[in-house]
Please model this.
Amino acid sequence: MIIRYGGGNHGIAEYLENGRKAEREYTRDELDHRFIIDGDLATTNKIIESIEDKGQERYLHITLSFAENEISEETLKNVTSDFRKMLMNAYHTDEYSFYAEAHLPKIKNIVDNKTGELVERKPHIHIVIPRTNLVTGNSLNPPGDLTNLKTQTRLDSVQEYLNNKYNLISPKDSVRVSDENYANVLSRVKGDLYRERNNEVKKEVFSRVTNENINSTDAFKNLLMQYGDVKIRNEGKTNQYFAVRLKDDKKYTNFKNPLFSSSFIEKRELPLVKPTPAQINNNVSTWLDKTSHEIKHIYSKSSKTREHYKALSEPEKKSFLKNRIDDYDKKYKLNTKNSERTQGRSCGNKFSIESTSRFSRTKTRVGVPRLPQRGLVYGIHGRGKPPESVRILQDNEQRNLANRMENRSHSDSAMRRNADRRFSERGIKNIGISTPLHEALFQKLNNDAERNELSTMTEIRKEIDPERFLSATAREFNVVPGEHAISKAKDGSPRFAVGNRNLN
Model:
């Protein structure tokens, strides 16, 4: 599983619901099954729209993308819950709105119009967090500065902690598995490149690197100098990279993508180094105990506060940070029992990969029969006073309501099944029994209907051409036939391998 951090100004609700992009021909319903995990999209969108629009980023859009073809509902929920607690560790649940939904692909492969490559689509989770603190009304940015190396390292370890805990494939594992996986990772990195600032220039530079066989840092620098003034950021350090001030551009454009790293330029290797379990534990603990709070209470404040904090010793920093947190909670009358921060510290932040139970795959997978019968939405976070006074239930009340709604949903499903069963037991009969003649007639029609249905299904199973069936699914849904081995059931009808199951 790989976590990508992004954001936007508007349009996220429409994208999640309808799925259309300018370069994509499919609707969301054609592309994916939507599985609501947490929050309410309408409320989240209202909060986003309540933020004054100055062209800035008004929401965080975070994606959790899986390498597995199937992920259980339980795992999707648990991964999201753990990620929320770690990312929002410094915040009380009153302070933010959080929305998450999973997209489970119906169409498994699709052509990327930007790269022209056939991209395999996997399950993924979209998380949306409006960039406003619902209590203070100030800007909210839990991940902090994503160009900061220390922040990158901490959040990278959060990703790997979740991968280890839930036995998920890490992008840093898959790149070493096979040449095919390397190509897939390379394709995804190129996809990230095409979404970056000044992406057209970066695409051209990358193309020239490969076509002109640029394989040294000096040669790469000379290439960049053809596009503008070149700077070396973090010179001499492991995270060194180039920045170019392109013509007619006041700002420097960073060439930080892995495709422009010295590792790729010189060796054509992507610099994906997986941290050890001990490093993961240490980095996650540091994020929970220190970094997440510094982002909220120090780095977002005045330069005077930042400089004062920077000059302190480590013990002094710890004391100073604690006082800032306590003063903040007291000022805004925040209940310390209702915060992600308290939950994170309840176990002393001792996250151990060895002591964490690995969640085995449940036998019940996410599929059409497991999808919600209706658009059930629950688990809204936040209880502050946004500019348009968006009403949000208190966390505990909301959770209780969510449980009641979920139970009612299961109850409704059972009622529907019972009603369907009663209807099927009575067949097409839908009026009261009036005479023995009516009863005999309806019974005969029932029996005939059942025989016809069984006969039709038997004939389909007997006559269906499995190769033509897979060809049709490839044409309609971009399914890759080679991934679905064909076998035969006892009655001779074909079965198709889907993951660990064989389906007729």
In short: Residues 436-503 form one domain.
